[in-house]
Amino acid sequence: MGMRTSISLEHHVHEFAAAYASARGISLSAAINELVRRAQAAPPEEPEILEGPNGLPMFPPTGGTITADMVKKLDEEEF
Question: Which residues, listed in sequence order, are joined to residue 50 by a DSSP beta bridge?
Answer without folding.
Answer: 58
